Amino acid sequence: MSPDNDDYKPFEEWDRPRQAWMLSGDCRGHRQRTLLLEMTTRALFPTVLVFSVYLLLVGHYGPGGGFAAGLVAGLAFVLRYIAGGSEAAVRVRPPVLIGLGLTVALLTALAPTVVGAPVLTTTKLALDVPLLGHFETQTSVFLDVGVYLLIVGVVLDLLRSLGAGIERDMRDAGEPR
């Protein structure tokens, strides 16, 4: 609403969320909202996702990799689900992520056989990226990206299936949504 509108009430609407991604959703009543958790989730969610990408990229030179990074990203989505309900969790269908992760991991594992090397052979890639300069990485990072997508998809699928059961049980018990 704008100040030009006759129905504009600035003192009644100043604290309403402006972004749709963290609204409380349909499964939470206004008495069940935890504003502190919602605001903390808004700050932590992108931070935890960036940390998971860091784990994904550093995993070849230390502990971490696709599995650990996928679990950390999954925990970020669990936090977002707890704070905002099923509507705030994610917009991508989990089976798509699972299938994409499996495809990327499988193609990466089988790619060395094209040049006569054994399955899962890794090598060093060196590229000259126009804006970034010289860039070096291991080919196993692509396998880890596939595992990352697979784990995030599995966690989101678990959230979707378990959350649907919880919401169904609440609806059947007659509790307010």
UniProtKB/TrEMBL annotation:
Its main location: membrane. The chain crosses the membrane at residues 43-61, 67-83, 95-120, 140-159. One of its GO terms (cellular component) is plasma membrane. It holds the Pfam family MnhB. It is a multi-pass membrane protein. InterPro entries: CPA3_antiporter_subunitB, MnhB. It is found in: Cell membrane. It comes from the Bacteria. Residues 37-156 form the Na+/H+ antiporter MnhB subunit-related protein domain. Keywords: Cell membrane, Membrane, Transmembrane, Transmembrane helix. Belongs to the CPA3 antiporters (TC 2.A.63) subunit B family. This is Multisubunit sodium/proton antiporter MrpB subunit.
